[in-house]
Specification:
The complex is a heterodimer. By secondary structure, chain A is an all-beta fold. Chain A is built from no helices and 11 strands. By secondary structure, chain B is mainly beta. In chain B, the strands form 2 sheets. In chain B, strands 2, 4, 5, 6, 9, 10 and 11 form a 7-stranded mixed beta sheet that branches. A 4-stranded antiparallel beta sheet of chain B has the order 1-3-8-7, with no helix packed on it. In chain B, 31% of the residues are buried. Classes of the chains: A mainly beta, B mainly beta. At the A-B interface, strand 5 and strand 10 of A face strand 5, strand 9 and strand 10 of B.
């Protein structure tokens, strides 16, 4: 059974940094592109970016490119999202997703909440 | 970025009813359109990929169609478990963008 389990969220002050993790199981992690998607409290969905199966290529939403970094450790079957200089508008639930071939997001984690507030 | 206009934003409907949710892209997206369902507990799963392809395990009452800028998701006969949020997503042009969602509610 494919499972994606995010962690690392919580309350963070504006301007701080935060690193989210997503541990994958039930499939060969190193065979798949992975992606992060977030959902605001108002339910708006926003694609953050993705990373190639071997970690050699990343692609980001232009509005987030300078502050967010996606990486992966295939030996640990873990995907990461490093967030820096966070702002109130980064308050959201962050989802780790597996990218299927079409491409589309065929598996989603349960999500992890990040609240940016002083 | 390509804007996805999803309508309606909410839809009251009855069990057994046929419903259609629409997504209009701000430019042609060559059928690169996916649909997702989000349950009240936050669980998200794919329903349809590349406009009309049914994800494995998804009931056949779900179907997708469209071309150019206009796409739709149809549920032929609503079941209790179908009352949820639905989102379209385009991947023709980076960044991927989503519609604002449609909340399907029990009438």
């Amino acid at each position: 059974e494919v499972q994606l389990v995010e962690s690392g969220g919580g309350l963070v002050q504006p301007g701080a940094s935060l690193k989210l993790s997503c541990v994958a199981s039930g499939f060969t992690f190193s065979d798949y592109w992975m992606s992060w998607v977030r959902q605001t409290p108002g339910k708006t969905m926003e694609w953050i970016g993705d990373i190639k199966y071997d970690g050699s290529y990343t692609n980001y939403a232009p509005s987030l490119k300078n502050r967010f970094t996606i990486s992966r450790d295939n030996a640990k079957s873990t995907l990461y999202l490093q967030m820096s200089n966070v702002r109130s508008e980064d308050t959201a639930t962050y989802y780790c997703t597996r990218v299927a071939g079409s491409p589309y997001f065929d598996y989603w984690g349960q999500g992890v909440m990040v609240t940016v507030s002083s | 970025d390509i804007q996805m206009t999803q309508t309606p934003s909410s839809m009251p409907a009855s069990l057994g009813e046929r419903v259609t949710i629409s997504c209009r892209a701000s430019q042609g997206i060559s059928n690169y359109l996916n649909w997702y369902q989000q349950k009240p507990d936050g669980t998200i799963k794919p329903l349809i990929y590349y406009t009309s392809n049914l994800q494995s395990g998804v009931p056949s009452r779900f179907s997708g169609s469209g071309s150019g800028t206009d796409y739709s998701l149809t549920i032929s006969s609503l079941e209790p478990e179908d009352f949820a949020m639905y989102y379209c997503q385009q991947y023709d042009s980076s960044p991927d963008t989503f519609g604002a969602g449609t909340k399907l509610e029990l009438k």
